[in-house]
Amino acid sequence: MTSLITCVVHNNQQHQLRASTEKLANGIQMGINYRLYAIERVETFSGEAVQLVKLRNPLGPGGEYIGAWARGGLEWDEIPAMERERLAVRNMAEGEFWISYSDFVKTFTHLEVVHLDAETSRDEPSLHNKHTWQMKLYQGSWRRGVTAGGCRNNQETFHINPQLHLILSEMEEVIVSLNQHSIMELKVIGFTAYTLPKNSTESINKQFFKKNKSLVNSEYTNSRQVSHRCQLEQGGYLLVPTTFEPTQETSFTLRVYSSKPLKLKLLDTPPSLMKSAIVKAPPLEGKGFSQYEAVFLQLADEHRTVNAFELQELLEACLPNDYIKSCACMEVCRQVVLTMDSSGSGRLKFNDFKDLMCSLKYWQAAFKNHTKEKTGILKAERLRDALLEVGFQLNTDVLSILILRYMRKDGTLRFGDFVSAILHLSDAFGIFESKDPLQNGTIKLSLAENFFIEIGVGLAGFGISFLFLGILLFFDKGLLAIGNLLFISGLACVIGPRRTLSFFFQWHKIKASASFLGGVLVVLMGWPIVGMIIETYGFILLFSGFLPVAISFLRRVPILGTILNMPGLSRILNKIAGDTNRTTV
């Protein structure tokens, strides 16, 4: 096989430093890996059988072995010339020598074997005629809250470790090698193997590891590499590489060597929406909702709708305790409006609010089921299971993004973080399903869609700039007309023509849309001042719910953004937006 064998002499200190060049009495240098080339058996004239080992010092001359059977030693005179010829005693390369097996065992403390795959072994001439190893590898990482579950002693988190499916076509002796890539402090690492059917395609849950005994267990050590050689029958096996302690992070490479073909693949769960995470309120309103309606109507506008800022006040008043109120922050409220507003107005009706309250109750129950140690605090390692209870089946890549976004410094999430993650997932699955009408699990996104969005943002930005300049230049009708056309065209490119028409021609927006579009028409007809007054009135009615977002967008428009971010004007805009604590970045 394409393997290299080396031997070395270590004492405790040198095993750590590997820097000593001290020599033993027989000339062997400590801390140097000698290459082992061959083991031969010879018979002396007296009939004694001697086992000889052929070694080579990688440093060449200067570290010559001077013990029994050394180059030019008297022991060679005790065997026939034909044997000396066979062992090429006189034609050995520099640094090569023979040593008796008994002295070899007494001298060297460690034997190291390096297995090379077919591609790597091409660089070693002595391996060209050897049978090559079949090798499969997987490069991964242990990440806190995602794949760092610790060894099998940690029954609650062991299943989140990377799971690799090994398939052997026939009974074979395999070598499994796990390397960690830690630079500073090496982690204690190892791996465990289980018997697994060949047709397994998805990751294995917690219950499997509680019910099934492990088949192979490597040693756990803080060395850079852990290897294990074992005989396995034909079939499928589950390999689970881990750190000894959970939550420890580092990257790793796992290699499996075999003399016969083999397969190795990562087991993961495809992301899917098992059920809707948004719970619809019962059609018959009971006492549970009547207590909220009065508060809702106090904050609602004339259309009985609320925006994100009013929703925040509403949740602060209606939610029962502090730990549930953690979802009443502005970021979550904006996400609620984005997820639950089907009209595109940026506002929620009372029916939407009822759905939200029912959903929060459902999400709180799922959150509570997975917060065993302390109420209101969810360990990141349990996020996947908690989201599965809500209705989201996630793979490792998606979970990694959520953990990166929501996990706190102590490795936990609060209820507000959990709610925000659910809302983001609802949006993502909703967008996917809208582009997958046949529900075949795949979508195609064209570059044209991205280009249209980018073009739309640019057109809207230029349109607003032209409008602003037109007003500054004493209501220049040409600039105002161009600005209006560019703004409406940009809006249609960003959200699509159908959604644009739906946005403007909803029944409760007829007055606002008529004012806005009528003002645009009046500007185009040549009465810029009157048209802009009517248009501004309609714009305020239409986009009042979007004012914070609109102002944030305008601040990023070249030239116009510089003006809007001036100290005095910036404070006024913050008050208009309803967010006095906003910081522009």
Largest sheet: number of strands, sense, barrel closure: 5 strands, antiparallel
Task: Count every helix, treating DSSP H or I runs of 4 or more residues as helices.
Answer: 20
- CA-based gyration radius: 36 Å
Structural class: alpha+beta
Give the overall shape, derived from the CA principal axes: elongated
- What is the residue-averaged pLDDT? 85
Beta-strand proportion: 15-25%
Strand order, main sheet: write it out: 4-3-2-1-5
End-to-end CA span: 61 Å
Low-confidence parts: 14-19, 579-585
Quantity of strands, as a count? 20
| Share of residues in helices | 25-40%
What's the short version?
By secondary structure, the chain is an alpha+beta fold.
Please provide a written account of the structure.
- It is a multi-pass membrane protein.
- Keywords: Membrane, Transmembrane, Transmembrane helix.
- This is Calpain-C isoform X1.
- The chain crosses the membrane at residues 451-475, 481-498, 510-530, 536-554.
- The longest helix is centred in the last third of the chain and has 26 residues, at 447-472.
- Helix content is 40%, strand content 19%.
- The strands form six sheets. The protein has a five-stranded antiparallel beta sheet with strand order 4-3-2-1-5. Strands 10-9-12-7-14 form a five-stranded antiparallel beta sheet, with no helix packed on it. The protein has a four-stranded antiparallel beta sheet with strand order 6-13-8-11, with no helix packed on it.
- It has 585 residues and is an alpha+beta fold.
- The protein contains 20 helices and 20 strands.
